[in-house]
Design a protein that fits this description.
This protein has 219 residues and is mostly helical. It has nine helices and no strands.
Length: 219
């Protein structure tokens, strides 16, 4: 193995964490204890992700230590081969481009849903929201967050983030259920009818294009 090392960029780590936390705090807008606790998990996920992406590649370090000369690439500490999927597929440029393309698609879709969902709730001023992206899923903001998590797992899987992702998803599923109990109490039959016809997070595949392109109504 060569000694090429393209990590140690801690300023980039700090800027990346700050940028994504800014969007998370803006769109998820925590209020109660459960929401702040979940956002703490989101923060931990981003810290683990970007620390390995640009700071210290713990996962690659452990894998090269365990596998030694059997590790399938010669420059494991360069950013191209920090993508474990690229390593799995033999280090091809096509694999790298495919991984990045899929990841960016998921991240963009997640951002769109977070942004649209937040704007709709903000404009509703406490009223029941059942149109726009909410006509396709009851919790489109959390759907957007899940897409972002999956996107980063595709782009840069690490041991820590792979372990943390299911915990993070479970925490937001629980939060969604808790929020729905409040919605049933507040809106009664109207919310029950809405919940019966609308999936919680993921609409059928044939509705995803309309889901992502749904406009944000003024009211």
């Amino acid at each position: 193995m060569t000694e090429t090392y393209t990590y140690g960029m801690w300023i980039v780590v700090a800027l990346s964490i700050g940028l994504f936390l800014f969007f998370a705090f803006s769109f998820l807008a925590p209020k109660g204890r459960a929401e702040w606790r979940n956002l703490g998990l989101v923060t931990a996920f981003f810290v683990a992700l970007f620390s390995e992406m640009y700071g210290f590649p713990l996962t690659i370090y452990l894998l090269t230590g365990w596998l030694g000369e059997a590790y399938p690439v010669l420059e494991p500490f360069t950013h191209k081969y920090g993508h474990l999927w690229v390593v799995v597929f033999g280090g091809s440029t096509l694999a790298w481009a495919t991984v990045m393309g899929l990841s960016l698609t998921l991240l963009l879709g997640g951002y769109v849903l977070l942004s649209k969902g937040w704007r709709q709730v903000h404009r509703a001023h406490g009223k029941l929201v059942a149109n726009g992206v909410y006509a396709f899923a009851r919790h489109p903001q959390y759907t957007g967050l899940f897409l972002i998590i999956i996107g980063f797992l595709v782009q840069w899987p690490t041991l820590l983030t792979v372990l943390m992702a299911p915990i993070l998803v479970y925490a937001y599923v629980r939060l969604a259920r808790s929020e729905e109990r409040i919605m049933y109490e507040r809106f009664g039959r109207a919310y029950a009818d809405y919940a019966r016809r609308t999936p919680a997070f993921f609409p059928p595949l044939n509705r995803w294009r309309a889901f992502l392109r749904a406009p944000v109504p003024n009211v």
